[in-house]
Design goal:
131 residues, Glutaredoxin, four-stranded mixed beta sheet, 4 strands
Length: 131
């Protein structure tokens, strides 16, 4: 499974080719670059719950941002939508998982990586797992 490009180059532009709102972009960039694993979720989303439980079960302590409980959640959600739009039009926006500062993907990608055995090495390389 191939990991997507670094977040800064992947989401700096919106669908019209214009820069994303700088404050929101910087907040997301700061979170993603400063934490081994970041998961953007919406509370009550069952697929978000599955991803969080998988990561917790593997021994990862991800940084979790619940967009419906964050003051900038709507803007971050729009930014993530643009990122997902670059990769796939039909994939849900959340959960959005970043590992080692790079956008990994949503539930489908995370589960595929887990099943094919590439998720744990990614997490180890990012410093999220030590075993």
């Amino acid at each position: 499974m191939q990991v997507a490009k670094d977040m800064p180059s992947a989401i700096r532009m919106n669908e019209g080719g214009e820069p994303a709102p700088q404050a929101v972009y910087e907040k997301v960039r700061f979170l993603v670059s400063g934490n081994a694993v970041v998961v953007f979720t919406i509370s009550g989303c069952c697929m978000c719950h599955v991803v969080k439980q998988l990561l917790f079960g593997l021994g990862v302590g991800p940084t979790i941002v619940e967009l419906d409980r964050d003051a900038a959640g709507g803007e971050i959600h729009a930014l993530l939508f643009r990122l997902h739009g670059i990769r796939r039009q039909r994939q849900p926006v959340v959960p959005a998982v970043f590992v080692g500062g790079k956008f990994l993907g949503g539930i489908e990608t995370v589960m595929a990586c887990h099943i094919n055995g590439t998720l744990v090495p990614l997490l180890k390389d990012a410093g999220a797992l030590w075993l």
